[in-house]
Specification:
- By secondary structure, this protein is of the alpha+beta class.
- The chain is built from 10 helices and 5 strands.
- The protein has 2 domains: about 90 residues, no CATH class; about 100 residues, no CATH class.
- The chain has a 5-stranded mixed β-sheet with strand order 1-2-3-4-5.
- The longest helix has about 35 residues.
- The protein is extended.
Length: about 200
């Protein structure tokens, strides 16, 4: 049996208040929180562990547990977000149509081409490193997320940020090789492929 319970019903069952924010403000605060790392585990604690540890059955119990266990963390997170909002406000002053055109061009032309070539460079490097034949993907392969074949095994090459997009990962039925661009080159995580190669 499969079914979906709407989040509104879940919140109602748990007596979680529905808080409304003016349009776009929540997205901006979320961006500021992400950029400032205000709500990452180092700042506010590992929430998945804390909720289990708390044993809370009501939102009141959870609030009491968290504020006792992590005193002052709420303020630290809010301060970091406020500082980042200030930075974003200042940055907004620089944004005009010319800059937007430049950003769009950089994304569509430069970054897309660089990202596309990253895939080829990574597959070439792994082919030589592991002494495996490299076969380029065909259009029908690319349509299902395959970027090439190493030693006959299909692989997909994705940026590290793809790890956060679980729903997209589920659509790819082969090992994913992740990469992250750094100031000195490309950091590659081929652990999924290495596991596949062992089996």
């Amino acid at each position: 049996m499969r079914f979906t319970i709407k989040k509104e019903l879940v919140k109602k069952a748990l007596n979680i208040p529905e808080i409304e924010f003016p349009k776009y403000t929540s997205q901006i605060i979320n961006l500021a929180g992400s950029n400032s790392k205000a709500t990452n585990p180092k700042t506010v604690g590992q929430m998945s562990d804390l909720t289990v540890e708390s044993g809370a059955r009501t939102i009141k119990e959870w609030r009491e547990f968290y504020t006792h266990k992590k005193p002052g963390k709420h303020k630290i997170a809010a301060d970091k977000i406020e500082d980042m909002i200030r930075n974003l406000r200042e940055a907004m002053e620089y944004i005009n149509r010319e800059m937007i055109d430049k950003w769009v061009d950089d994304l569509l032309i430069n970054k897309t081409f660089y990202g596309f070539l990253n895939q080829g460079a990574i597959l070439e490097h792994m082919s030589k490193r592991l002494n495996l034949t490299l076969t380029q993907a065909k259009p029908e392969d690319e349509a299902i997320g395959i970027d090439g074949y190493l030693g006959g095994w299909p692989v997909s090459v994705k940026p590290d940020s793809y790890k956060n997009k679980a729903a997209l990962q589920e659509g790819i039925q082969c090992p994913i090789i992740y990469y992250e661009k750094t100031s000195y080159g490309i950091r590659v995580d081929a652990s999924e492929f290495n596991e596949k190669e062992k089996t």
